[in-house]
Amino acid sequence: MSTVAAERAAKKAAKPATMAQALGRALRDSLAEDPTVHVLGEDVGVLGGVFRVTDGLTKEFGEDRCTDTPLAEAGILGTAVGMAMYGLRPVVEMQFDAFAYPAFEQLISHVARMRNRTQGAMPLPITVRVPYGGGIGGVEHHSDSSEAYYMATPGLHVVTPATVADAYGLLRASIASDDPVVFLEPKRLYWSKADWNPDAPQAVEPIGRAVVRRTGRSATLLTYGPSVPVCMEAAEAAVAEGWDLEVVDLRSLVPFDDETVAASVRRTGRAVVVHESNGFGGPGGEIAARVTERCFHHLEAPVLRVAGFDIPYPPPMLERHHLPGVDRILDAVARLQWEAGS
Amino acid sequence: MSTVAAERAAKKAAKPATMAQALGRALRDSLAEDPTVHVLGEDVGVLGGVFRVTDGLTKEFGEDRCTDTPLAEAGILGTAVGMAMYGLRPVVEMQFDAFAYPAFEQLISHVARMRNRTQGAMPLPITVRVPYGGGIGGVEHHSDSSEAYYMATPGLHVVTPATVADAYGLLRASIASDDPVVFLEPKRLYWSKADWNPDAPQAVEPIGRAVVRRTGRSATLLTYGPSVPVCMEAAEAAVAEGWDLEVVDLRSLVPFDDETVAASVRRTGRAVVVHESNGFGGPGGEIAARVTERCFHHLEAPVLRVAGFDIPYPPPMLERHHLPGVDRILDAVARLQWEAGS
Amino acid sequence: MTVMEQRGVYRPTPPPAWQLRTDPAPLLPDAEPYRVLGTEAAGKADEELLGRLYAQLVRGRRYNTQATALTKQGRLAVYPSSTGQEACEVAAALVLQDRDWLFPSYRDTLAAVARGLDPVQALTLLRGDWHTGYDPREHRIAPLCTPLATQLPHAVGLAHAARLKGDDVVALAMVGDGGTSEGDFHEALNFAAVWRAPVVFLVQNNGFAISVPLDKQTAAPSLAHKAVGYGMPGRLVDGNDAAAVHEVLSEAVSRAREGGGPTLVEAVTYRMEAHTNADDATRYRGDAEVEAWRDHDPILLLERELTERGLLDEDRTRAVRYDAEAMAADLRERMNRDPDLDPMDLFGHVYAEQTSQLREQAAQLRAELEASAEEGAEGAGGADGEESGR
Amino acid sequence: MTVMEQRGVYRPTPPPAWQLRTDPAPLLPDAEPYRVLGTEAAGKADEELLGRLYAQLVRGRRYNTQATALTKQGRLAVYPSSTGQEACEVAAALVLQDRDWLFPSYRDTLAAVARGLDPVQALTLLRGDWHTGYDPREHRIAPLCTPLATQLPHAVGLAHAARLKGDDVVALAMVGDGGTSEGDFHEALNFAAVWRAPVVFLVQNNGFAISVPLDKQTAAPSLAHKAVGYGMPGRLVDGNDAAAVHEVLSEAVSRAREGGGPTLVEAVTYRMEAHTNADDATRYRGDAEVEAWRDHDPILLLERELTERGLLDEDRTRAVRYDAEAMAADLRERMNRDPDLDPMDLFGHVYAEQTSQLREQAAQLRAELEASAEEGAEGAGGADGEESGR
Ligand SMILES: Cc1ncc(C[n+]2csc(CCOP(=O)(O)OP(=O)(O)O)c2C)c(N)n1
Ligand SMILES: Cc1ncc(C[n+]2csc(CCOP(=O)(O)OP(=O)(O)O)c2C)c(N)n1
Ligand SMILES: [Mg+2]
Ligand SMILES: [Mg+2]
Predict the structure, then answer these.
(1) Distance between CA atoms of A115 and A123, rounded to whole angstroms?
(2) Is C81 a domain residue?
(3) pLDDT top residue among B4 and C292
(4) pLDDT given at position D382
(5) Nearest by CB to D131, which of A106, A117, A177?
(6) How do B193-196 and B15-18 pair as beta strands?
(7) A197 exposed, middle or buried (CB, 10 Å; 0-12, 13-18, 19+)?
(8) How large is the average pLDDT for residues D162-173?
(9) Lower CB count within 10 Å: N or C terminus of chain C?
């Protein structure tokens, strides 16, 4: 069968799959292919995780490969460090964003630095899976967007998928990476669906490459994770207003794909960064600053930011007012000084 | 005696004091004036802290007011939360920047949010003193610039002095604040000296106001804490190159003084943000982005950043290559596209 | 002499003069959970107290079933039921004086309610209209705590502060078996013992942390055995025996009140429902185990005792049930009303004073709300353009 | 059967059928630190071992004085001396097989040296030319750990991984009395016990955490009493009695090796010097206390024993001293040379592959270095424009 024919057949066999299923499949395939991969976390065993991402893994690979740990996040990540020191490749699940905070010291002071501290002698190929973001009606401490903390920590990769296929590809790549990766899973996309054939040969996306999800000429929306579908929707709605928006899904916050991003903004001359995380001190500042450094003379307007407000994450009944939505994105696009230039 | 005369007398009585002494005096005066103030931390008692900032406090106020705790940072901050819940005003010392990380969950999930979570019923007037930054030849984990983490956390104030007088005034204001304040003490300025009269009525600086340390017309250096003296030095050196640099000492990263900063940059049309913290994901991104948002049409060049490299803090013998110095600042100033405009 | 100076002035001395700092023997728990109901000790139990416990257990169970029902009607975002654990919840509330403080976890809304908090306020967090639905200082009930074990150092700090101020206040902090594995548990107990803070730690060992059974959580003889490592007494009690839990907690509260320092109490109980309504317990445990615990139901145990002793007649039972039903009906009725929310509250109480940044953001939201109200679209609530005084 | 499935299948059963999960009695430490030297047990001690311990103690003391001297000459940024604690340091090194792993804290460079690591490599961190001066995998010595107690979960994870792989490897992790207060201590011991990981935790209780004495650190009968709360044996040993520490650690290592799980060992010792050369111990402790411990010096204790038994003649003593002096001379000589540093190493090993951002930054530094080299200024080292292969 030719590659084209194979691809066509694979596409035909594709069935709707959720992002959670694709993530689970990535774990399964990693466990199957590489005996040094171990999954550990709270409730990842028989329960299959509170989001069911690890469903079936303990059954298929045994408790030694997919392990329910005691309830202690620093302990989980700390023991994962030890396991990685011995040559294993641990994949740690943090149950929710805010419950990764107890492991912060281990993450910052050890995970991120061990390779550097030992001049390359002891890399730590650990993947830390962190469900993040809101929009699922979670009560407090269940909806934080904590990516700014990880971005500010040299030595970590920070990756986040927005599609079912990327969920698989990026998680495989993260587990295969010889560096520690904080793998941020957008909670509200866990149940998002796409046609996907888990048995077809899957593309393993390289870490560190953004992708243009929609080409456009008026302005660029720079976004990632849970905000990607929102930006796509905004771009569709913008057509009616006469704007042809380009949408860039960053996919990897660290390393940052300056090339793809700058190329897009140079083309369009205008940009809005969109994310759920608080605006102040959030990822958008870094992104806007580096785009401006690189594209200053191409910019018709300052790079604007649409972000969560600078408040603790709100209670479920109010979260829709906090989360960047289509209208707020279009409002920002409207402020891109259209009278000023092209 | 007139105010002017009193001021003159006070100035005359001023003697060289170090920043560490001014901080200690601020603690002392706060303890003396307000019986609800309590100092706690590791070695803050008879030892007087590893930087001697709390020297003499236990002797003067007793162990109940200045308390050596067990060695557990989450426990220190967590018990401080409880003390504040009961109406006390704890001032917590973290021994070094990286040793504040174990307290991260308490800081993010409780300290920063308690007021908001309880709709104002339970504010937490806690000051967390964190010695930060490098330049003192410290071995690993003793020189982190962790301000980006705190800036990204709504509900915290983030304050850092650069002068002896500000050390006193800002710490007094932080302790008096009804909000939690992360008070970042630039380690390498602990022994910096200025003429200062501890017995003169002291200005208590309001939190949230930047100050122009040097006026200039060519470009603005936006900086804070340990980098302020470096920027002042750079500004002096710049004169020879024909640049008249303005230096803004931010003093408070949260709340951010957009007014003072934007006014300066609008005046000069060019800006460089200077800090020790890693560049990527560091405070500079936020600062550059918000300056650009506010001053876009006044800018002759993109706001540039001079920051620590995106690496784990280096060992003592190499740190001078990492820390932003005068040359690196002047190199950035030179890149502000002088041919392009005014 | 200050509080901090009251401690022994132990200094490490050379090993020839070494001695244990305290005698471990009295700190160790008994080998069996302490029980009252159905034992000789029951004879000594205060009848009035047993009656109050009974009324509260029945009310508590009804509260649990009502709250669970509200999740099905979409009136609660989530509910972690304490069905089966009512003896612990109720006893924890009843042993405290008004001036004492309770530090509940997310599962302990019932303890707050049994202490007198309005159930609607107790459930605010789980309904999702705000994080904490009551003024903690007014009720001396800390906010329901979700990040596990993080409330324990708070309890220690508060109790310590009260002691420093010379106030007669005890703090009782609740945590689950899973929560004992967290570092904050360790640090809190250690601080409490070193400071001799008037705190009681109540661990409800309900057998599971979500799906994880106790044997994957700890290898200790019992959780109460952890106490000796901090130099405080550890007590093991049958957590379904309301009289026993009350007695053990009362003793611990008295000891704390009298300056005797903290106590760790492990109450052995069982979580009869799933972790929350969102959980599927069949994935990790069998019916048989759950059924076995039904014989040891806290209401059943107490009812048996009261009946045998002729303390429970039909009138009393009816009155207790009536009271429970009235509470449930009121709760149902009030929870069925939509809470009155103002989106502008988002910007309230982030800081004592709003920063200029928050003022800008509030103005933005206000404008959005006004615009959508003008559009006649079903405006996103409270678009009156003013912050509520809430 | 997999490793994880070997645990008992304990399930919480209703309190009528309750039982302690393990017998606490054998887990509790004795009331006195175990001693060998000067006791009857000494008769059974292996003479060859005593001789080796002695040589290492003398060498260790010399190492400590030499390192301290190097701080005065500005050749070390800082040195936390283990003077007085050599028995623990040396015994920890000697009980391990080659394939076992050592997890030292910042104070434990001597343990690494006693295990055979080049002292210059051990001191790299404290000299300040790099963070870790050796390849941890080559030597089975984890990087010297500064954030307190954070190395303990690493030891557990490594030991667990080895067991999963079927390798006969034990991990020995060292921590101070102050470090036992950290949450990571708790979490590590709990994981170790639940997983029955082959780890030995050695707490050197040297009386102080910088200035804070033990009585402000814990109210426990002893630190070894913490063990029962995790379900592992706790052992108390005279930390200045090298033979006793060796014996207790050997037993613990053997138990771990044979699948018996972890042990917590508290060695009672004393820090004779200040916390580091930068510390001023007179601020928080008196001379009398320090002097009292001089009679209990680890070298003295062993010397007395060896002399009484006629195992230490002048030749032997001279040989031991000679060896120690040779080590010190070599160390001094090599530490007096400036290390050869390349600033471009800053960008090495942040990631497996340099990111484009780091490449840009490396280029910037390279340009700066070249410029300053050209200026003829005493160029900031290694400006050859290439990353070293270091
Ligand atoms: C720090 C932290 N980690 C993880 C969670 C997620 N979580 C919520 S409840 C729970 C299990 C708690 O078990 P236990 O302490 O036994 O209390 P129970 O639910 O049985 O009352 C977990 C893991 C959390 N809330 N906080
Ligand atoms: C997490 C953390 N907090 C604080 C420190 C600062 N610090 C370094 S050593 C020390 C005292 C440690 O005492 P102990 O554990 O008894 O070890 P010892 O120094 O006596 O060997 C402290 C507080 C640290 N290194 N790590
Ligand atoms: Mg439980
Ligand atoms: Mg010590």
Answers:
(1) 4
(2) yes
(3) C292
(4) 38
(5) A117
(6) antiparallel
(7) middle
(8) 98
(9) N
Does some domain include residue C5?
A: no
Model confidence at D10, pLDDT cuts 50, 70, 90, reads: very low
Q: Which two tokens stand for residue B192?
A: 């910096």
Other CB atoms within a 10 A radius of the CB of residue B169 amount to: 21
Query: Before B255, cis peptide (omega within 30)?
Result: yes
Q: What is the pLDDT of residues C304-360, one digit of tens each?
A: 999 999 999 999 999 999 999 999 999 999 999 999 999 999 999 999 999 999 999
Report residue D27 as tokens: 């887990």
**Residues of C whose CB is below 8 A from D187:** 181-183, 186
Q: Which of A97, A139, A142, A304 to mutate to test the interface with C (most CBs of C within 10 A)?
A: A139
Q: Is A155 on the interface with D (CB under 8 A)?
A: yes
ipTM for this prediction: 0.96
Ligand in closest contact with the CA of C176: 1
Task: For a ligand 2 pocket test, name from D185, D205, D210 the mutation site with the most ligand atoms within 8 angstroms of its C-beta.
Answer: D210
> How many structural domains does chain A have?
2
- CATH number for the domain that contains residue C104: 3.40.50.970
Report d(CA A185, CA C92) in Å as an integer: 39
Name residue D101's beta-bridge partners. Answer: D171
- Region of residue C376 (left: phi > 0; alpha: psi -120 to 50; beta: else): left
Confidence category of residue A189, pLDDT binned at 50, 70, 90: very high
Is C284–A47 a contact, with Cβ atoms under 8 angstroms apart? yes
Q: From the alpha carbon of D146, which atom of ligand 2 is closest?
A: 25
| D interface test, pick of A38, A73, A85 with most D CB neighbours within 10 Å | A85
Q: Tokens standing for D265? A: 């060992």
Entry field: residues in chain D: 390
Q: Tell me: the pLDDT tens digits for A21-64?
A: 999 999 999 999 999 999 999 999 999 999 999 999 999 999 99
Ligand 2 atom having least distance to the Cα of D275: 19
What confidence score (pLDDT) does residue B6 get? 65
Residues of chain A positioned with their CB less than 8 A from the CB of D170? none
Shared domain for B138 and B168, answered yes or no, is yes
d(CA A302, nearest CA chain B) in Å: 5
Q: Report the sign of the C-alpha dihedral through residues A69, A74, A80, A82, in that order.
A: negative
pLDDT at A198 over 90: no
Digit-coded pLDDT (tens) for B306-333: 999 999 999 999 999 999 999 999 999 9
Please tell me the total number of residues recorded for chain B in this structure.
342
Do A14 and A89 lie in a common domain? Answer: yes
Q: Do the strands A181-186 and A157-159 form a parallel or antiparallel pair, or are they unpaired?
A: parallel
* Set of chain B residues whose Cβ sits within 8 Å of the Cβ of D369: 321
Question: Is C365 in the same domain as C326?
Answer: no
The reply to whether B153 touches chain C by the CB within 8 Å rule is no
What's the one-letter identity of residue B153? Answer: T
What is the domain-level CATH number for residue B82? 3.40.50.970
Pairing of strands B245-249, B211-214: antiparallel
Residue labelled with tokens 């991120």: A112
Angle subtended by helix axes B283-295 and A283-295, to nearest 10: 60
3-state DSSP assignment of residue B219: strand
Q: Which two tokens stand for residue C140?
A: 């001396």
Among A295-304, C174-183, D5-14, the least confident range = D5-14
Q: Note whether B155 and C350 are within 8 A (CB).
A: yes
A13 and A106 in a common domain: yes
Q: Computed from CA positions of residues B218, B219, B223, B226, in that sequence, does the dihedral angle turn out positive or negative? A: negative
